[in-house]
Write a structure and sequence with these properties.
The protein is α/β, with parallel strands linked by helices. The chain is 40% helix and 16% strand. It folds into 2 domains: 208 residues, NAD(P)-binding Rossmann-like Domain (Rossmann fold, 3-Layer(aba) Sandwich), CATH 3.40.50; 96 residues, UDP-galactose 4-epimerase, domain 1. The protein has a 7-stranded parallel sheet, sandwiched between helices. Strands 7-10 form a two-stranded parallel ribbon.
C-alpha cells in the first residue's frame, strides 16, 4: 500500500494530547513531515520534558492538563480536524499507587476530550488504548474481538473505560473515533523513570553500569513494538476511512523473552554488570504477550517494519546523544 494516507495531513490542523511523550513526540514530527499546517501539543510534562518537544514554528505547546476546562478550550480553539488522544497517567504500577489520579486523567480526561471533539466538530479522534491492558488473560495471539473484564490494575480498567466512552460518543453523537491498542512500545524519546517502560529503564541502568533488574524469571515474553511503527499505525488510523469505528492492535506480532532484551541492551551499551532477579509484582500476571496484527494489516496496510535489535540500537544511540538531558530529567 502506498503512503497516500500521509497526504491527508497536508495543510491540516492536528491536536496531539500527550504530545511530548515518546509516541506523541514522534507522531508530531511525522505530522510535520507530512505537511501539517499546525500541530498543537497538550501535555502536562508529568512524564516528558520541554526538550523532547519538536522544535518547529508550526508546533504550539500547551503545558496543560486534559482535566482543565480552560486548557481544553485553548487546545480546541484552532478547531483541529484530527485529534490523537495519547495523554494518560501511565501505567500499571502508577495506577495502583495513585488509583484516583488514574481515574481522573484516564477516565474523566478522556471524557472531556471527547466532549470537546464533539462540540468543535472534530472530523476524527484516534484514542490510544493498551493491548497489554484490555485483553486480560485472553488466548494468544490477542485479537481485537477478545476482550476481558477480568483486569488486573486500575490502568487496565481506565484504558477499557476510554474505549467504551469512545464508542458511546461515536454511537450517540456521531464523533468519528478509532481505537488503537499499543503493545510494549519502545524507541527514542522516552525518558526513563519509576513508572516508565522497561526498555528505557534498562538502557538507563546499563549506561550507568548497573545490573538490569528483571522481575520474574526472564523467560516471560512481550510483544515489543518500535515507536516508529506505532506512529505509522496511528497515521493510518487517523486518515483512512476504513478505520472508522474500529479497534486495531499496533504491535510487532512477535514475542521476545525479557532476558533476551536485557542481554541485547547490555551488549549494545557494553554493560558488564549483567542482570539481577527481583520478585515479580502482584499485578504482573502474564507470562506471555503476543498480538495478532492481521486486522491492522488487512484494513490499514500496517506492518511492523523495524527489527527489535535495530530498534534497540536506535534507542541506545538516542540515549547517548541526549545523555545529559536524560540524567537531569529521569524520574526514579
Amino acid at each position: 500500500m502506498s503512503d497516500s494516507y500521509l497526504r491527508h495531513y497536508a495543510g491540516a490542523r492536528v491536536l496531539v494530547t500527550g504530545g511530548a511523550g515518546a509516541i506523541g513526540g514522534n507522531l508530531s514530527r511525522a505530522l510535520l513531515d507530512a505537511g501539517a499546517a499546525e500541530v498543537t501539543i497538550l501535555d502536562d510534562l508529568s512524564s516528558a520534558a520541554r526538550w523532547t518537544v519538536p522544535q518547529d514554528p508550526r508546533v504550539v505547546l500547551l503545558v496543560a492538563s486534559v482535566l482543565d476546562e480552560r486548557d481544553l478550550k485553548r487546545a480546541f480553539a484552532g478547531r483541529p480536524a484530527t485529534v490523537f488522544h495519547l495523554a494518560a497517567l501511565f501505567a500499571n504500577q502508577n495506577s495502583i499507587d495513585h488509583p484516583e489520579d488514574d481515574l481522573m486523567v484516564n477516565g474523566l480526561g478522556t471524557l472531556k476530550v471527547l466532549q470537546y471533539a464533539h462540540l468543535t466538530g472534530v472530523e476524527r479522534m484516534v484514542y490510544a488504548s493498551s493491548g497489554c491492558s484490555v485483553y486480560g488473560k485472553s488466548p494468544l495471539p490477542l485479537r481485537e474481538e477478545f476482550l476481558s473484564i477480568d483486569l488486573a490494575t486500575p490502568y487496565q480498567i481506565t484504558k477499557m473505560l476510554g474505549e467504551l466512552y469512545a464508542n458511546f460518543y461515536r454511537n450517540f453523537y456521531g464523533v468519528q473515533t478509532v481505537r488503537t491498542r499499543f503493545f510494549n512500545s519502545f524507541g527514542p524519546g522516552e525518558i526513563p523513570g519509576r513508572y516508565r517502560n522497561v526498555i528505557p529503564n534498562f538502557i538507563y541502568w546499563a549506561m550507568r553500569g548497573e545490573p538490569l533488574p528483571i522481575t520474574g524469571t526472564g523467560e516471560e515474553t512481550r510483544d515489543w513494538t518500535f515507536v516508529g511503527d506505532i506512529v505509522d499505525g496511528l497515521l493510518r488510523a487517523g486518515a483512512m476511512k476504513e478505520a472508522l469505528g474500529e479497534a486495531f492492535n499496533l504491535a510487532s506480532g512477535l514475542e521476545t523473552r525479557v532476558i533476551d532484551v536485557a542481554s541485547w541492551i547490555n551488549e549494545a551499551t557494553g554493560n558488564k554488570a549483567g542482570v539481577r532477579y527481583i520478585e515479580r509484582r502482584k499485578w504482573d500476571d502474564k507470562d506471555r504477550l503476543l498480538a495478532s496484527i492481521d486486522k491492522a494489516r488487512s484494513v490499514l496496510g500496517y506492518e511492523a517494519r523495524t527489527d527489535l535489535k535495530a530498534g534497540l540500537g536506535q534507542t541506545v544511540e538516542w540515549f547517548r546523544a541526549n545523555w545529559r538531558d536524560i540524567q537531569e530529567t529521569a524520574r526514579f
